[in-house]
């Protein structure tokens, strides 16, 4: 298949703590574990790996941690993963994300404050839940 709109996307990021990341992304947001390799089970030179996503999505997150040589996450306030909800934001979802390690923050971009909620994951990366639909954003 040529590169195009249906090409699968993998967003890879370092993580300080894969268990904390899993709590946020899986128990908080509701993503599924697509693949996991525990650092303790990894062969020498390999790293811990957690891939999360929705089964029907054309993207997933890959979170990595190598205990012997950890890479510190360096997110900025503009490193965003935006999910267009296209409806009123369920407050129980925001509460669940916060209960599973997220922290609601203000965005420096007023657009995201007006049209959604920004939540930092345990590694400091930002998830925006936008109440608008993609077609009208």
Description:
The protein is of the alpha/beta class and 137 residues long. It starts with 8 loop residues before the first strand and ends in a 7-residue tail after the last strand. 23% of the residues are buried. The longest helix has 12 residues, at 18-29. The chain has two domains: 9-65, 2,3-Dihydroxybiphenyl 1,2-Dioxygenase, domain 1, CATH 3.10.180.10; 80-136, Roll (2,3-Dihydroxybiphenyl 1,2-Dioxygenase, domain 1). 20% of the residues lie in helices and 31% in strands. A hairpin with a 5-residue loop joins strand 7 and strand 8 (126-130). InterPro entries: Glyas_Bleomycin-R_OHBP_Dase, VOC_core, YycE-like_C, YycE-like_N.
User: What global shape is seen?
Assistant: globular
Tally of helical runs:
3
Low-confidence stretches: none
The total domain count is 2
Summarize the helix and strand pattern as letters: EHEEEEHEHEE
Helix content: 10-25%
- From the N-terminal CA to the C-terminal CA, the straight-line distance is 29 Å
Strand order across the largest sheet: 1-4-3-2
For the record, what is the CATH homologous superfamily label of the largest domain? 2,3-Dihydroxybiphenyl 1,2-Dioxygenase, domain 1
What would CATH call the architecture of the largest domain? Roll
Most strands sheet: 4 strands, mixed
Please tell me the overall pLDDT. Answer: 92
Number-wise, the strands total 8
What structural category do the secondary elements indicate? alpha/beta
What Rg is obtained from the alpha carbons, in whole angstroms?
16 Å
Work out the strand percent.
Answer: 25-35%
CATH topology of the largest domain: 2,3-Dihydroxybiphenyl 1,2-Dioxygenase, domain 1
CATH class of the largest domain: Alpha Beta
Pfam families: YycE-like_C, YycE-like_N
Domain VOC: 5-132
Protein name: VOC family protein
InterPro entries: Glyas_Bleomycin-R_OHBP_Dase, VOC_core, YycE-like_C, YycE-like_N
